[in-house]
Amino acid sequence: MTTFVDRVVLHVEAGKGGHGVASVHREKFKPLGGPDGGNGGNGGDVVLVVDDQSTTLLDYHRSPHRRAQNGAPGAGDERDGARGDDLVLAVPEGTVVTSRSGQVLADLVGAGTRYVAAEGGRGGLGNKALSSQRRKAPGFALLGEPGEARDIVLELKSLADVALIGFPSAGKSSLVSVLSAARPKIADYPFTTLVPNLGVVTAGDQRYTVADVPGLIPGASEGRGLGLEFLRHVERCSVLAHVVDCATLEPGRDPLTDLDVIEEELAAYVGDDALGGRPLAERTRVVVLNKADVPEAEELAEMVRPDLEERGYEVHVVSAVARTGLKELTFALARHVAAARAEADAEVVPQRVVLRPKGVDDAGFVVRREGSGDDEAFRVIGRRVTRWVHQTDFANDEAVGYLADRLARAGVEEALVEAGAVAGSTVLIGAEDDAVVFDWEPTLVGGAELLGGRGTDTRLDERTRRTSAERREEFHSRKDAQTAAREELAAERASGRWTDTDEEG
Q1: Gene3D superfamilies in the record, alphabetically (predicted)?
Q2: Does 173 appear as a known binding residue?
Q3: 468 is in an annotated binding site
C-alpha cells in the first residue's frame, strides 16, 4: 500500500459568502422603523500551512477535493451572519504549489508558513448597509459572492543539505543508516528504496541533513523508470555525493562509466527557475567510492581515484559495512555544506517593498469586442464588476436598477459606447466560464423606478410627531365640522326640503 506521495492534484473551493437580508424594523406604534437587514458573513478560505509533523501528501491523494465552510446569511435587527471557518490543510516542509499550467504559486519553506490557496467569497450587504440619505428604504439586499475554486498541484521536494545519488544498489541506504539515525529499508536487489530517506548527521558542532535519493538509471531525466520523481528531491540540495559501487559484477559497469552516466542525467534535468536553484550540474559534487570492504573493490577504488581527482572531484573511499572512511567523509560533507550555506546567506538580498498605487485613469475593468456579425459581443472583464453581477438578485427589479446605477457610475456604459456597442448588443460580464449575458440598453430602468426614486418610501419622511396641542386642535376642528354639518342638515329639513313620504299611503 502506498504510504508516501510527493505529488498530487488538489481541487480546492473556498466558502461562499452569506446573503444579505432585506428587513424592516417593526415595533409597537412604529410599524416602519427603517431598514435593519444584516450583512452576510464572508466565506472561509482554504489555507495551506507547513506542519513539522507532516511528511507526505498521502491524505490529499486519497481525498483530493477540499472545500471550506460557507458564510452564514444575515438576519433582521441588524444581525450579521457568521464568517465561515477557514479550511487549514497541513503540508510537509518543502512543498511547492503550482498551477495546472506549471506556474509556481508558492514555495512553502519554514514551519508555520501559510499560503491562501483559495479566497472565500464576500458576504452580501443587507438593506441597512445599503441605505443612505438618498436611499432611505432599500427593498433589496446583495447576494453572497461565490468562493474561489481552482485546481492546484502540490509537489514535495525534499529539504536536505546533501543528496546521495547513484545507481540502484550502490549502497546509498546503507550509507545513510551509518551516518545518521535513519533506518531505511536495505536489501540486495535494485530499487529497494522507493521514497527518499532523510537523516541528520552531526560532525563536530555542525549538523546537516542527508537525503538518500532512490537509484537513478540512464534516461532518468526523460522520465525513464521513476527518474523524474527521484530527481525532484535533488533540486534543493546544495551538495551532491556520487555513491559509486566498486563491487558491481554487472557487465559494462565501472566507477567512471557510472559517474559519467549520472552526470549526464544531472545535466539534462531542467529544474524550476522560479525556485531560484542552480542547475544540478553546477552544484558541489563529491565522489564516494563505496563497498571498499571487498578486496577487489578496494583495489578498483584506488585504481580509479587518481583519474577522478584529475577531473577535479574530491574522492572518498568508504565502506558502509566495515564503517571505514566515514569520519573523513562526514567532516568533508560538513565543510562543503557550511560553504554552501555561507554563499547562500551572502546572496540573500532584502526584498524591497514596492507600492504600486492605482492609476487615476484605471477604471478597474476592460471592454473587449469579440466575434463579428450576428455573433458579435462585448465582454466586460474586471474583478469588481464581476463581483457586482454575482451579488445581484435578478428577480428583484430594484436590485437590477441598483446594479445599473453602479455600472453607470463606474463608466461601463461609456466604455461600451466607445467600443461600438449599441442598444440591443450582447454584453457579457465576467470570465468566459462564468459570465452573465444580457442584451444591453443604454439606460436600464427597473420597475421600481416607476414608483419613485429607488430605495425611497414617503412614509419614512415623516420625521416629527404631533404634539398634544396639535392633536387636541385637530380633534376640536373635527367636532366643530361635525356640529356644523348637523346644523345644516336640520335647517334644510325645517325649510321643507326634506319630507317623509309613504308610498303605500
Answers
A1: GTP-binding protein OBG, C-terminal domain, GTP1/OBG domain, P-loop containing nucleotide triphosphate hydrolases
A2: yes
A3: no
